[in-house]
Amino acid sequence: MRLLIAILTLVFSFSAWGQQQTIAYWAQNDNDLPGGGFGFTPDSFPQDADVGAGVLFLEDFLETVNAAGAYTSIPSFAGSTINALPGFAAGGSLSIQGGTGLANNGASIVLLVDTTGFENLELSWAWQSTATGFNDRALAWSVDGQDFTTFATEVTSGAISFRREAYNLSAIPELNDQPEVWLRVTLNGATNATGNNRFDNILIEGSPIGAAPRFTVFSEDFTSNPFPRGWQDQNLVGDQTWNWSSAFENVEFNGFVPGQGCLANDNWLISPPIELNDLSAAELSFELSRNFTGGPLEVLFSFDYAGTGTPLDATWTLVDSITTGQLPQTNTNFGFGPYAGFDGLSTVGHLAFRYDSTASGCAAWRVASVELTAEGSDDGVEFACGNEVTRIHAIQGPGFASPIQGQAVQVEAIVVGEFQSTVNGGLGGFFLQEADVNQDEDPLTSEGIFVFDNNFGVGVERGDVVRVAGTVTEFFSETQIAEVTNVAVCDSGRLSDTSPVLLELPAEDLIQFEAVEGMWVKTTQELTVTDVFNAVRFGEVQVSKGRLFQPTQIVEPGAPAQALQAANDLNRILIDDARNGSNRLPFINGGDNESELAADNPIRNGFTVEPGFEGLVSRAS
Question: Which of 69, 208, 419, 525 qualifies as a FRET site for 340, CA 20 to 30 Å off?
Answer without folding.
Answer: 208
